[in-house]
Amino acid sequence: MSTAQMPAGREPASTRPRVDAGKLWAGGIATAVVAALVALVGVLVCRWLFNVPLLSPKSDGAYGDVHTTTMVLVAAGAALLATGLAHLLLLGTPRPMTFFGWIIGLATVLAVLLPFSTSAPLDAKIATAAVDLVLGICIGSLISGVASRSVRIRPPGGSAYMSSDPVPPERLYGEPSYRQPRYDEAGYREPGYGEPRYDEPR
Q1: Which of 30, 179, 182, 189 is the residue whose CA sits 20 to 30 A from 93?
Q2: Residue 7, number of CB atoms within 10 A of its CB
């Protein structure tokens, strides 16, 4: 059955995107390391540079206590969770990065608002919200970039290529069309006319 004869809404198996799980999860692990470092640096900057008692009293020093370690681990876990979410969306939804952006955006807003529901000092609430905002932006942008480069597309009749590769001729040109025959004064058809050609690239 040809592509034109297939029911609407169905896509040939050969044209469905394939996720390169190895590349996606390697990027996810790298993002987890970056997120953990962002959380650690955020805590150190708030406590040491701005003297804000983030997560624990000032008497606990620049690093704080076990709550700092917990925040670092939670940041890394959130990056891995976002990677799993991106993988799931890539496998089963249309426009997966649109859904991913909305989910991460709303989760970041929730993380920013959550500190203000606690009984911590106002400066600590603002500092925690700022660190959460940076973490959300960091995780969302990095995982989106990794996911968009981990999709393998196989065009009909063509070999698979990564979404970050140059656009292949099968996608750059349209369907074959025909030029109207043209004849010279002697009645001979001019070369190239009446033969199939490809539309100009858009």
Answers
A1: 30
A2: 6
CA torsion sign for 68, 74, 76, 78 is: negative
Q: Kindly calculate the radius of gyration of the chain based on its CA atoms and give it in whole angstroms.
A: 27
Cα 66 to Cα 55, 73, 128, 197: the distances in Å are 9, 11, 16, 69
- Residue 70 CA to residue 54 CA, distance in Å, equals 13
Handedness of CA 104, 109, 110, 115 (dihedral sign): positive
Alpha helix locations (H) across the chain? 21-44, 66-92, 96-113, 122-148, 169-172
Q: What do you get for the CA distance between the two ends of the chain, in Å?
A: 28
Amino acid occupying residue 99? F
Measure the CA–CA gap between 79 and 32, rounded to whole angstroms: 5
Record the pTM: 0.69
pLDDT tens-place values along the chain, 202 residues long: 444 444 544 444 445 568 899 999 999 999 999 999 999 999 999 999 899 988 888 888 889 899 999 999 999 999 999 999 999 999 988 999 999 999 999 999 999 999 999 988 999 999 999 999 999 999 999 999 999 999 876 555 544 545 544 444 444 444 444 455 565 555 555 555 555 544 444 4
CB distance 101 to 144 below 8 Å: yes
Which residue type, as a one-letter code, is found at position 102? W
